[in-house]
Prior knowledge:
Blueprint: E1 2-7, H1 13-26, E2 32-37, H2 47-55, H3 70-74, E3 78-81, H4 84-93, E4 100-102, H5 103-107, H6 119-142
Parallel strand pairs: 1-2, 1-3, 3-4
Amino acid sequence: xxxxxxxxxxxxxxxxxxALFNAYARKRGFYRAxxxxxxxxxxxxxxxxxxxxxxxxxRPKKKKAIQLDEAMLGSVDVTVTMxxxxxxxxxxxxxxxxxxxSIYDIAGEDIPDPYxxxxxxxxICCYVLKELMPQIYDFIKKRx
Length: 144
C-alpha cells in the first residue's frame, strides 16, 4: 500500500510523518510512505526536522522538497494531510478521489507547522506525530 503525507512546503511535517510512519510500518506491514508539499519550493528537509527525527531514534536522510501534483494523488492508496485546510485544497484538486484524509480525521487535531520556529517546536511536532503513529497506522490499515 502506498501512503502519501502532505504538508505545506515538504520540509518539516510531512517528511517527519513519512519517516516515522515507515519506521512504524516496517515492523507491522508492507506499507510505504512518501511525502510532498502543496506549495513546495526549492527547499530540502529542515535541519531541525532531521535532528528531531534523530532524537526519535531514526536515521533520516535529507531530501529535496517535492511539489505535489494531481497525478501523485492518483498514484497512492491513501493521502494524509497535516491540516484540514490542506485536505480541502487536495480535494479541490481531485474531487474524484475519496482517499484523502487529514490527521484531524484520525486524531481530532491538526498538526501545527513548526516552519520558522525554534528547534523545540520541531521536537514537539515530531513527538506528537510519533505518538499518533499507532492511530495513523491503524486508520490506514482499515482502508487497505
